[in-house]
Amino acid sequence: MFAAVAASALLALVPPLPAHLPVAGRELFPFDPVILIGTGERLEGQAARESSYGNYRYRFATEASQKAFDAVPSRFAIAMGGGCARMGPLSGSGDVGRFEVVNDQIYIFASDACRASFLKSPKDFLEVADDPFPTDARGVELNALARRWLRADAACPREIVVWGARMERVGEIEHGVRTEVRLGPNLTFAELGTWDTNAWWTVATFGPVDPRTQALRAKRSNTQGEQPVDDAQFEAFRRVAMCEPLFLSRILLQPDAKVAGGGAAEWKVGATTLTGEILRIHWRGVTVEWLVKPATGQPVAQRAVKRARDMRFAAVTEAFSEWNDRGGVRVPMVRTDGTSTRRFDAVDSECVPSAAPGP
């Protein structure tokens, strides 16, 4: 157990991801979803009429209901992949006994308090796509500077792992806690958290589909079965990935990314005022702004709309510091919004910077 291990042992070499369990069994939603959405009536379906989608099974009271569901299952299935509607698509599964139909979608919740909070203002908790914008000349210039400073063009033969480990005391017991972000080939991104020997992580491939390799989209754990990631969860995880500087530095290389200058600015983070020039980056429905030093391209802060601590979407500004300068990549080891701080310990990589980074 981690609890019995000295803290120094936690700061050893990066271990491989723990083995995950096979795909979990699908839970049964109690009512015909097509009739529930259409009329509000709660009719139980028949075992002879059953379809599966995502992490759930559905039964239907009529043949017409099943045909409508099978034609477009995402239209009638539980939204957010079954995550608690207040806590988001990537949260733990909600309770199928706690559901509400809102704007012709079925949402489930982890608790009655989550349901009450969501119903007060559903739009505050729902993922929305950011509006795109055209690339401009200053954006291209700042992009080139940021890519060069970050060494984003580095050739990396294996995945890059940014990780942090600490001991956390609860009462008289110390627990080992580890957090990681991983970036692999073809924009494969993973986020992992562990508590003692229990681990949970989400992984997805955001690059183009290659028929020779398997595109990953899953929530995994060594304590429960694997869960597929549906489209809503995939888009939510894209926003998570875009808010990670390691991933975003590679988005600067993507031909379909939009980059634009936002002019000189001062951003306040806690009691600190940061100055620089804004580089706006948009990729497939998500926009992130970096405040960069115009002379070098170094990002000093980041602003993006994401889930805040109360789970509502809000613009969050974070300052970067203590940049890693080893392994051929540059990654900020400390990110703070002025109230809370996220800290990593090291970067594990074997990247070789390009001798002549592209424009």
Question: How would you describe this protein?
Answer:
This protein is of the alpha+beta class and 359 residues long. Helices cover 18% and strands 40% of the residues. The chain has eight helices and 20 strands. The longest helix has 14 residues, at 137-150.
Short description:
The protein is an alpha+beta fold and about 350 residues long. The protein has helices spanning about 5-10, 35-40, 65-70, 75, 110-120, 135-150, 230-240, 245-250, and strands spanning about 20-25, 25-30, 45-55, 55-60, 95-100, 105-110, 160-170, 175-185, 190-195, 200-205, 215-220, 225-230, 260-270, 270-285, 285-290, 300-305, 315-325, 330-335, 340-345, 345-350.
Main features:
single chain; 359 residues; alpha+beta; 7-stranded antiparallel sheet; 20 strands
List the helices and strands and how they pair.
Elements: H1 7-10, E1 21-23, E2 27-28, H2 33-39, E3 46-53, E4 56-60, H3 63-71, H4 73-76, E5 95-102, E6 105-109, H5 112-120, H6 137-150, E7 160-170, E8 173-184, E9 188-195, E10 198-205, E11 217-221, E12 225-228, H7 231-242, H8 245-251, E13 258-269, E14 272-283, E15 286-292, E16 299-307, E17 313-324, E18 331-336, E19 341-343, E20 346-348
Content of β-strand: 35-45%
How many whole angstroms does the radius of gyration measure?
A: 22 Å
- The succession of helices and strands, N to C, reads HEEHEEHHEEHHEEEEEEHHEEEEEEEE
Structural class determined from secondary elements? alpha+beta
- Regions with little confidence, pLDDT below 50 for 5+ residues: 1-11
Largest sheet: 8 strands, mixed
The strand line-up of the biggest sheet is 1-12-11-10-9-8-7-20
